[in-house]
Amino acid sequence: MRAIVVRHYKTLINASGLIMGWGDAPRVKGWEADLAYVDAILNERDIQFSTVYTSYLERARQTGMFYARKRGIPLVHDTQALNEVNYGALYRKSKSWVEKTIPQHKKDPDFVYPDGESFSQMQARSVEFLESLTAKHQDETILVVVHAGVIRGFISHFLKLPYMENLKRKITHRYIGNFLFEGDQCIRYDELSSSLSGFVKDGVISVPFERGSG
């Protein structure tokens, strides 16, 4: 299976420096620009996908439908398993306030947010779901529309990187991750956009990354 993983469109909360998680917010002005950029790269590389999976959150679902409609795909499959980490009571709190008030924020993946969950819990559920798709779509290419936290969890897990050290890596709204699976094992990872993730920009990995390449 080949999984093309992208991030949802930018929302007003994304742009305002507030905690989002399982909440949602309206799109920013000009939100289409990021999606059009990603769509153009997918077309340039002639990437055809059979199925679209998204989180249950509106920003991911609407993004998935944007790509699906352009390709005549009638159905988008949404699931809470692909949701961003649940920050619980911290929804709409200032990120700077959270960093000052909660020292474990994006430093301890096992810290459970008040009325929410931990990054480790989010990573476990999203990774398990993606791995479950490998048998169902063994010889196919699928599109997966998710969130920055989920993407960090995927890269850390499938490339066997220490999760704690990578909780803050930058993931832009123009990110395009290319995960190639053999069975449920990721054997190759690449990034198809010039808007590279923090994993690449910060020198954590080089792309393309192949199993055993380090």
Can you walk through the features of this model?
The protein has 214 residues and is of the alpha/beta class. The protein has a single domain, classed as Phosphoglycerate mutase-like (Rossmann fold), CATH 3.40.50. 33% of the residues lie in helices and 17% in strands. The protein is built from 7 helices and 7 strands. The protein has helices at 12-16, 32-44, 58-70, 95-101, 119-136, 148-158, 198-201, and strands at residues 2-7, 51-55, 76-79, 141-146, 176-182, 185-191, 209-210. The chain has a 7-stranded mixed sheet, with helices on both faces. Helix 3 (58-70) links the parallel strand 2 and strand 3. Helix 5 (119-136) crosses helix 6 (148-158). The longest helix has 18 residues, at 119-136. It is globular, with a radius of gyration of 16 Å. The model has no long low-confidence stretch (mean pLDDT 95).
Short description, anyone?
The protein has a single domain (about 1-210), classed as Phosphoglycerate mutase-like (Rossmann fold, 3-Layer(aba) Sandwich), CATH 3.40.50.
